[in-house]
């Protein structure tokens, strides 16, 4: 029987120092996508940061040029931009990006089931970042990586350690499954509202703009719903201001990094800026809708509805503050409308583009048409969505705690 391991008393003095090429080998078998029966392609875009699982893939039609072949049990490691911490287990025979390494554990020195977690340890990832070369797209060379030395726990302990880490991973995957189901339910509900109905109401045919606002069309909506210009439902708009100076005793400023792609507020890094005479004109109130007017093409248009944690924040010139006429448009419904159209790519399709940046001008935003249910129906929808989002946030918080614990365990082992 394998002796139970107490991580609190894990003694690293018994760890063995080994070169990386003793721990694993790099598989360099090449594949021509135009001359193979393999169907599964895995690019770096298919790998999630800090995850050992591959949950999506491309096909051979997506790529050109020679790629690396990979086999079940191998680990694909993103050697380019190692700071993204991408390393995941292959489950199907296929081929992957040449910007990655295909690594295969040496079972004589490391338990293969433990190997993926080793690659996600700070010991390995930080070393990978340190030895990367190049400024724009730093890359790890195998010739350098193979010479690096790492500490591994004793071989006789590794199977039990792998069992412990996989049990923690199973907890996270179950929580992610719940999260995905809730997010799918929310997105389906929002789509139903904005394209069809809330309940099974009697409908009428009205003239509306198409989803991407490119043409007029006849569609069925519940009787009483209105199709109006967004500008006629907005009471006040205000663009933010740019500020390069910092003042730790100043005013917090909402910036692009404080709003996630999934419309969550992220205050892990907040810029404090000097106050100014007219700062009250640029402060955020609870229930203000904040529209990200400038960002990369795929992120322009992401939006949030402000809660109490943003009270008295200012906001940068990358945001437009929207305050609707509450007698016809509730703030939460406006946020729901913006979120849906961001998710389907409306703002990306209509933005003005520069090199590395895109923008949706306020005037362009306000020229869009919005379908409006009655205020009472908007209130019903808002409360339903708020309750769903609360459940999503609770599960999301659980996942973050579980991931933090998993990371702590990995670094405890390695």
What would CATH call the class of the largest domain? Alpha Beta
Mean pLDDT: 92
* Fraction of residues in H or I helices: 25-40%
- Major sheet characteristics: 5 strands, mixed
Widest β-sheet, arrangement of strands: 3-6-9-4-5
Question: Outline, from the CA principal axes?
Answer: elongated
Low-pLDDT stretches are none
Number of helices: 9
Share of residues in strands: 15-25%
The CATH H-level superfamily of the largest domain is DNA methylase specificity domains
Distance between the termini: 24 Å
**Spatial extent as radius of gyration:** 26 Å
Number of domains: 2
Overall number of strands: 25
Structural class label = alpha+beta
The CATH topology annotation of the largest domain reads as Adenine-n6-DNA-methyltransferase TaqI, Chain A, domain 2
